[in-house]
Amino acid sequence: MKGPTLLKAHTGRLQTQVGACWPGSRAVFRGCDLHGDIQGIDWMDLYVFGITGRRFSAPEITLLHGIWTLTSYPDARLWNNRVAALAASTRSASVLGLSAAIAVSEAGVYGGGPGLRAIDFFIRAGQAVQVGQEIRPFVHQELASRRIYGYGRPINSKDERLPALIALVQAQKLAEGRHYQLAFAVEDILVHEKQPFLKMNYAALTAALAVDLGFTPRQYQLFNILKTLGGMPPCIVEAADKPEGTLFPTPCTDITYEGPGRRPWPGKSDG
């Protein structure tokens, strides 16, 4: 079925398995009565239940909370926070600034992009190891054709979030996951056989944990896109409290310009 026939089959109705609401009566979320069966559910529990259709254990929910909180930095210099703060500085609506900041969190080099590439790598690495392949030749094979995302970090190769995340994983007794352990094995190969600065960063370890928790790449992307959300509202509030337009003003004298020199503007007299 395709074309007009396919469209006609879906006209005038919504076919859904994720839920629906009946105003004045009830709301169903993934087959559960939202105000009855799962009333009082933790927000993260609800969020990942909506994404995956599965309920996670208390230690797993604690871990997922930690992944978000450990990387929510209220620093307006960060690329996505800067968007939110600049929106507030120009007196744009807070929701527009927040929405734009979340959108640019999906940056291809240092945002959601590396996370997607990292989870793809760990899924394939885990499958290879499961059928008997050694991780070392798999890593070498991978490096021959592409970069392994989640290792190496600009500015400082040490990722300050990892010790706290590792401690959280151990406290929740979730350190036995195959992909979690593979993340450290890959780091050992890269650091000792390739480059010493290719240490594991947050993207690698969180992606490995996500595979152990059963996330698909799309599910992980939906979870991962909000991992810096907690740091954005403070930046908006602070920028809005300052005089309008005073966040990161850049004088013309501070700009290095090497383009064409001054030229006449068509239709504008010298006088």
Q: Could you characterize what this model shows?
A:
The protein is mainly alpha-helical and 271 residues long. Among the domains are: 26-55, no CATH class; 118-224, Cytochrome p450-Terp, domain 2, CATH 1.10.230. It has twelve helices and three strands, in the order αβββααααααααααα. The protein has a three-stranded antiparallel beta sheet with strand order 1-2-3, with no helix packed on it.
Q: In CATH terms, what is the architecture of the domain at 118-224?
A: Orthogonal Bundle
Number of strands: 3
How many helical stretches? 12
- pLDDT average, as an integer? 93
Low-confidence stretches: none
Order of helices and strands: HEEEHHHHHHHHHHH
Percent helix:
40-55%
State the CATH topology of the domain at 118-224: Cytochrome p450-Terp, domain 2
Strand order of the largest sheet: 1-2-3
Which structural class should the secondary elements be placed in? mainly alpha
Taken as a percent bin, the fraction of beta residues is under 5%
Most strands sheet: 3 strands, antiparallel
Tell me the name of the CATH class of the domain at 118-224.
Mainly Alpha
Report the principal-axis shape. globular
* End-to-end distance: 70 Å
Structural Rg:
24 Å
Structural key phrases:
3-stranded antiparallel β-sheet; 12 helices; 4% strand; 3 strands; 50% helix; Cytochrome p450-Terp, domain 2; mainly alpha; single chain; 271 residues
